[in-house]
Write a structure and sequence with these properties.
alpha/beta; Rossmann fold; six-stranded mixed beta sheet
Length: 403
Amino acid sequence: MIITDEKKIDEILDRGVLKEFLPTKKEFKEKLMSGEQLKFYIGVDPTAKALHLGHAQNLMVLEDFRKLGHQVVFLIGDFTSMIGDPGDKSSARVQQTPEEVKTNFEGWVEQVKNILDFEDEENPVLVKYNSEWLGKLNFAEVLELASNFTVQQMLERDMFEKRMKKGTPIYVHEFMYPLMQGYDSVAMDVDVELCGTDQIFNALAGRTLLQKLKGKDKFVIATNLIADEKTGQLMSKSNGTGVFLDLKPNDLFGAIMAQTDGMIRPLAVGCTRLGLEKIEEMAQAENPRDAKVKLAFEITKIFHGEDEAKKAQEYFINTFSKKEISAEDMEEIKVAVGDRLIDVLVKNNLAESNADAKRKIKQGGVSIDKNRISDVQYIIQPEDDKKIIKVGKVHFRKVAIIK
């Protein structure tokens, strides 16, 4: 049964997460009000082992449409990630191997099971992998798809334009990315694609292919990227503000508390289901720290449950307000003498990747027993046993050397 209650539809469309409606918001709302079941999808490339709150925001919108009765697909771009989306990068992305791709996405469903209903008996979220169809295309079929676009159209993409002006190489395989993502829409025969504003170019390629190959139109609905409303800085792992969904409760709570004050409203709107009036009250709180505590509790509750969120809040308050935390209360990590510190950080979810770990060290964000580590090649020493590794302002681990 499709829900066409205008109030519920407006709550989704007007919350402030959705930014672009192509062709128009009016036409999209009319389609939702028609009672027709629509097929929505979001695609995510497994370029890292953990999804982040930016993904969570978009997946929560996808679930909102599923609750209206529409069919929704969570598409894992296991094939497209081997091409590498140029996105907003100033150079070509590193192409991943099939093994790296598989390792990255194997934990994703577990990470988002509390925001997407994969178990609904009548209308569950569907999980698909685009290697199912992209991996079967032969060269003649790829050429046929490519004939629907011109080089000029591809060069209209902002990042390609910038790279052309700078004289930075643009590789032919990068033109294949929007083509392949576009074909996802054809293969799944979708009605709506949800994406971030950084993916509109690729989503419109899918709209073009659907129109040309199936005579069918598709709505492209783009969500705002999560950004500090005061500075405009995006939440991202490259600038150290990424919040990943595989974090344990204490670390997730702490990562939210480490966000800037300008992130309170964007995160509350996109990553909680608090009402807008409640969010506005929270954002206007006299002490932003109090607002962040509420925000961190709400987000941690979504991913780990209310009991764990309460424990994480108590841990944070005791650690950073009352300063009662002791080494005995800290999570212990087992390491061996000779382990590289960057590997230890990645293995224990204190950094997303080796590059992220190196960045944290170079920026002075890693210390062992209050001694700042500046050497990215630092090796665990026997004397590090029982010492405390601190990463950023809120992440602590006690070292346990494996004998």
